[in-house]
Amino acid sequence: MTVADLHPWKEPPATVVFVGGGPRTAGLLERFAASSGEFLGGRRVEIHVVDPFPAGGGRIWRREQSRLLWMNSMTSDVTIFTDESVECEGPIVPGPDLAAWVAGEGAVILEKAGLEPPGPMDFPPRQVQAEYLAWVWERVVRDLPATVITHPERAVELTADQRVILGSGQEIAADAVVLALGYLDRLPTASESAWAAQAADAGLTYIPPGYTADVDLDGLWPQAPVIVRGFGQAFVDLMVLLTEGRGGWYDECNGLLSYHPSGDEPILYVGSRRGVPYHSKLGYTVPGTKPVPTRYLTKEALGEGVLDFDRDVAPLIEKELAYAHYQQLFTAHAERTRWPWERFAEALDAWSPRSGAGSDAEFEAAVGAAVPAANDRFVRHEVDRPLAGRFFADREGFERFLTELIENDLLRRADSAYSADLAVFNALLSIYSVLSRAITDGQLSDEDRVRRVESEWHSFFSFVASGPPPRRLEELLALHRAGIVRFAGPDLDVAIDNDQFVATSPAVAGEVRARAFVEARLPRPDVLATADPLLRGLLDSGALAADELFAADGTSLGGGQLKADSQCRAIRADGSTQETLFLLGPSVSGSAGSSGFSRPHFNGPGFRQNDAVARDLLKLLAPTVRKEERHAS
């Protein structure tokens, strides 16, 4: 007599396939394990994870990358595990954040890997995070009541009867599939293809937007000028790989960092739309300060229906940021103000940015009277474009000005006397949450979402809140003093002339000529241009839907995100929902927590979404008897 004879209701093992094995999948499986006892009733589950890169870290957080590349978060600001702050239906299963792991079990692991354990306030190498995520993966797999099989290859097709076909030809029949693909490679744009063709014809080196750790930099020759457009994280990685990565080194004397070239570095002329690097990460904490609910940009203020971003949303953002800045200034540094906070708050409440004659002037007068020091005032457009309206008759004068700007930024971002900057940072996080909800609720047009939120607003957010560790800007200044990095200016325009790239800025006299040009930025997400064969096949067949976006004047805005419902279930081109296909990640509409790791004690939206999806998966896989029991109750 078999087990099946004793329990005739017993069902065969359930099979789930995860395409993508990075941190999102690890976090989702942790939530799956947490709630499995509530749903599975002993049913066996087989989980397949398909990813050519190692499970846990995936592509971005793989071990096999330069030790010189750092995370953009402090050790103490990263966790994979839920804590008491997370609001979810599943049970909380605490685990160590990155800082606790480094001080505990991770210490031996890092020692074996030859990695220095970072401190809680350090920005650790990405390889440290890779080791943490590998350890997390092992713990998650150990806790799962399932058999886990990893496939280090790509999934190339998902059939209508839900068979996942791998690059090797293997087929996996699945009861449910989760696509957690992370950041997608995309086909070149028409502009990028034209640049590549022109550069090839002229014998020039052109490097299009891409993930710097994966880019071939051999075409950037020692001591030759290189034009670089982009001053964010992609540039910082490029700078590191082309300097220390080519054998140079730093030392410090009397507090001044010096760079010693190896001779293999190119000369980088860097510019961007702003012409300045992203603001340094804040180098201090203030106890008790954290993101708080928005005051002006609220769901109630936005109301129902489709909004006009410039008219309905942007003024509320202006007030939100100003309120955060000035409330912290007036309450924590009252000695630098002339009015009581209550009086100033009334002026701020009455302010209607750009709403009518005199409203801005009245608020500006209140700021002038109440806040005597210019560097204690907050004017968003001046923060956003610090070089606006300036012209420099020579490059040397511009470089002196920009050097001083960067030095002052480093001093300010390390000084808690300017904790109003921290308040603005926290307000940006709260604003982002409201904007994400407005997008998910369909309150913004495609044009506003792409141009205003995903381009302009995200650019401002990254510039202020997602800049490099302070040490990286110190290195930038040292490289400038060594003649390795030069500054090319804002609104940088690049063209090809006489078999050379030529870069000009309307704010700086002169031009820069070079035989190499790097677009130091990530490619704009566009699922309709994805290079992934699995997604292309699903989109072509109508099994997945993604809008092609157009502006009001008919201009194409490219492809949107993959469509998913509020439960992260895939939506087909005909509008129907696929009950057993789930979509997660930055290329999916409404996917929470896709922009980075959650901070401890922060009730991260990614945790909440992972928990909900894990429980929906478990409900699908639950034995029929258990489903009937739950329905009856």
Automatic annotation (TrEMBL):
Quote the Pfam families the UniProt record gives.
NAD_binding_9 (PF13454)
Give the matching InterPro entries: FAD/NAD-bd_sf, HpyO/CreE_NAD-binding, L-asp_N-monooxygenase_NS-form
What name does UniProt use for this protein?
Answer: FAD/NAD(P)-binding protein
Q: Which residues form the FAD-dependent urate hydroxylase HpyO/Asp monooxygenase CreE-like FAD/NAD(P)-binding domain?
A: 17-183
